[in-house]
Structures are given as C-alpha cells and as structure tokens.
Amino acid sequence: MRRRFATTIDYLGRVELEVERNLLELLLIMPEPHEVDRFFYADVWGPQELAHGRILDQLQDDLGLRPTPPVLEVGLKMKVLGALSHLGQVQDVSRLLYYLTGASTERQAVLAYSEFVKGLEQMGERAIAETIIRPIKQQEPGHFAFYRLSAQKMIQDGELRPWQLHFARLLRSRSYNLVGTNGMQLHKHQMGEVIHQLGFDEQVERYAKEIGRLEANLLWAHHQGMDYPPYILEALRESVQLYRERGSFEPRENHQ
C-alpha cells in the first residue's frame, strides 16, 4: 500500500485540507456572494472536504506516514483579484471562475478516487476501498454537479457581457493550475507522480478532455472543435515531465 499509493494518499489528503484556504479565497473574491453559493461552500462542500482530509490524514498515520502540511496562506494573485472583486462586474467574473475551478477540481477528484478504488481492489485492499475511499468518491459528483449547473446557468442566462467573458478567458489561461499544485514546482512534481500512480500518464489528452470539456464548451464556445483548453494539457504534461525527470518521492515516515 505504501509502495504503490503513498504519494497519492498524501496528495489527496493535503488537497482536501486546503479547503480552509479556499474558503478564505472565496470570501475575498466574492464579498457579496449569492445565498446559494454561500450555503454550498460554507455548509456542504467545506465541511465535507475537511472531513475527507482528516480521514486521509488518519490513514497515513495508520500506514506509518507523516502527512504533508496543507498550503493555507492566500496567494498574492488571489488577493489582487479580491481587491478588484469589490467592483460588481468583476465579482461576476470571479464567480464564473469559481464555478469553472470547482468543476475542474471536482472532476479531477472523481477520476482520481475512481481509479484509486480500482487499484485498491486489484491489490485486495477492499476494506480501505469500501470504508474510506469509495465513500469519499461518492460525495464528489454532487459537488461537480453544483459547479457545472451554476456555470451553465450563468452563461445561458447571459449574465456576463462580452468584455467580462474575455477577461475571464484571459485570467483563466494565465492562472490555471491542476488541483493542489498551487503554482509550485514541488507540488507539480508530486502531481505528476499521482497521475502516474493512477495510470493517467499514458493518456493525458483523454484526461485533459475529461477535466476540460465543460470549460471548453462554456468559456471557449467561440472556438469550434476545441475538446479542452490547451492550458489544461500543458499543465498535465508539465507535471508528468517533472515526475519523469525527478523520479518518485520517498514516503515520509512517521517516527513518533
């Protein structure tokens, strides 16, 4: 278990716990949130993700591993966007980016937990698969559905003007990161190993399509035939390349 999935467990656990930072970011970029958004992230998504992280941290402890601390400090770029979001029209752009980021993140989570369950079952680790990983996996599609429907409604209702959509495309193409990489080379490298451990590294274009289809359909609909935005494939290839160049992480053993 440690040899095959130590990095995956560590990565997933850290990402789930970084919801604490994500909640602070949402307060910055949506100072006047819609009530349904506030209810979802404060009363549904946030508590569930924190519970997932604590459970995965306990699993690591049971395996004799020391979890990587989550990144909880809000970055400068998010603070700048938060300052601009006090302007109502910019906050609308931030809200669309929140939905798109959430959809991409949750789709990555659904795929990751699905493959993780398969891998555990192949190893005969059915107890962990059924009592820990599958229950977490079952909550993620509901999160994805919220983001997908919210983003679709925003676009279909014409809530954004052309310049706002252009601004959203610009921000998205300049700031996109795979879930949990936080723009950091160390985390991109670790994500590359997770992609490898889950078997996605030999089919990155298919994986890019899975996590980028909604974004391509909504944000880049004016580009005919785009299956996924190119920056998603670039992010995947960068992480995989870093892993292939630098090799595997050593498990962080807990000696306490």
β-strand percent reads under 5%
- SSE series: HHHHHHHHHH
The coarse overall form would be: globular
Terminal CA distance reads 20 Å
- Spans of 5+ residues with little confidence (pLDDT < 50)? none
Number of helices: 10
Number of strands: 0
Helix content: over 70%
Write down the overall mean pLDDT: 94
Query: What kind of sheet is the major sheet?
Result: none
How would you classify the helix and strand content by structural class? mainly alpha
Would you kindly provide a written description of the structure presented here, covering whatever features stand out?
The structure is a single chain. By secondary structure, this protein is mainly alpha-helical. The chain has ten helices and no strands. The longest helix is centred in the middle third of the chain and has 36 residues. The mean pLDDT is 94.
Entry keywords:
mainly alpha, 256 residues, 10 helices, single chain
Short description:
This protein has 256 residues and is mainly α. It contains ten helices and no strands.
Break the fold down into its secondary structure elements and pairings.
Blueprint: H1 2-17, H2 19-29, H3 35-62, H4 76-84, H5 88-123, H6 126-156, H7 162-175, H8 185-197, H9 204-219, H10 230-246
Helix pairs in contact: 1-3, 1-8, 2-4, 3-6, 5-6, 5-7, 5-9, 8-10, 9-10
